[in-house]
Amino acid sequence: MVQQVLQKVKVWDGFIRSFHWLLVVAIATLYFSAEEGMMELHFIAGYFTLALLLTRLVWGVIGSQTAKLSALLYSPIAAIKSFKLGDTKPGHGAAGSYMVIAFFILVLTQLISGLMTTDDILTDGPLVQYASSNVVEWAGWVHHNNFDLLFYAIILHVAAIIVYRIKGKKLVKAMITGRADNAQLSDDSNVVKSPLLAFIIFVILLVVLMATWGAEPLSYLFS
Ligand code: HEM
Ligand code: HEM
User: Fold this and answer.
1) In order of start, what are the domains of the chain with their CATH numbers?
2) pLDDT tens digits for 62-93?
3) What's the Cα-to-Cα distance from 218 to each of 45, 72, 117, rounded to whole Å?
4) Which of 6, 71, 118, 202 sits 20 to 30 Å CA-CA off 39?
5) What's the chain's average pLDDT?
6) High-pLDDT (> 90) share of the chain, %
7) Contacts (Cβ under 8 Å, ≥6 apart) of 47
């Protein structure tokens, strides 16, 4: 009897996994802090998310094979085919890659607009002082409406993960452990790099952002 042995393959490095789950916690914090009017916490979580996303984009150039931004570029036809036939390469599939690109654009738009948004009472994003009142008004509109798009994207994302699970693909487990069952991988696929450099870049960006824009909200939060 021929038994097919599924290889356990490391597909997500430690930074990608940390990035993902920290992003989930950060966006939940950003939503609830805005709802509760806790603007200092909102700003701190915003700078944290900015450092996280910028590091992810840098890691998309210098990081693991499955982290590469270039690996996200599929034709729309490949995306449609992947629904029927499934994906064989380690990393994001064709359809999932469109979702990932959408997330990067939506989160970046939310961050940049936030920097120029004011609550018209006490708290101004750090770039408000450099922008005209028209731009600030427009940024506030973007910050409000883009969040709705981000919210729908998250619902769609989680729904897609559930559909894949029903079809037998354990994507969440892979995003937690880094390892996926993949029978179709060639031996030379050493796809994952050490995440150390990514964490160093993240900490540097975080310290710079906190020291410049974060000092005031941080001192308020801890006073
Ligand atoms: C705030 C909510 C969320 C956001 C913004 C988000 C965003 C993202 C992003 C940007 C990626 C790509 C990771 C990368 O290459 O850097 C991703 C992948 C993934 N996310 Fe989420 N996510 C969210 C919530 C969730 C939740 C709740 C789950 C679990 C049910 C989940 C499961 C996954 C999985 C399994 C992948 C890998 C998909 C694949 O194998 O291609 N996400 N997510
Ligand atoms: C991914 C990151 C972010 C998310 C998900 C997010 C989310 C939100 C949400 C949901 C609101 C309530 C919007 C409304 O109901 O009109 C809000 C308000 C606000 N956000 Fe953010 N935000 C982010 C980043 C930032 C950043 C980086 C800043 C500035 C440093 C910022 C500054 C503000 C301000 C000043 C308000 C109040 C607007 C008002 O009262 O009309 N946000 N944010």
Assistant:
1) 8-221 (1.20.950.20)
2) 999 999 999 999 888 888 877 766 666 778 88
3) 11, 36, 19
4) 202
5) 91
6) 73
7) 206, 209, 210, 213, 214
Among protein residues, the one whose CA lies closest to atom 20 of ligand 2: 114
pLDDT at 190 > cutoff 70: no
Report the predicted TM-score, pTM, of the whole model to 2 decimal places.
Answer: 0.93
Least distant ligand from the CA of 107: 2
Q: Judge if the beta carbon of residue 147 lies within 6 A of ligand 1.
A: no
**Which residues line ligand 2 at a C-beta cut-off of 6 Å?**
27, 30-31, 34, 42-43, 46, 49, 107, 110-111, 114-115, 117-119, 123, 125, 140, 143-144, 147
1 confidence band (pLDDT: 50, 70, 90): very low
Contacts of 89 (CB under 8 A, 6+ apart): none
Q: Which among 45, 51, 42 has a CA at the least distance from the CA of 15?
A: 51
CA 171 to ligand 1: nearest atom: 35
pLDDT score for 127: 97
β-pairing, 8-10 vs 179-181, is antiparallel
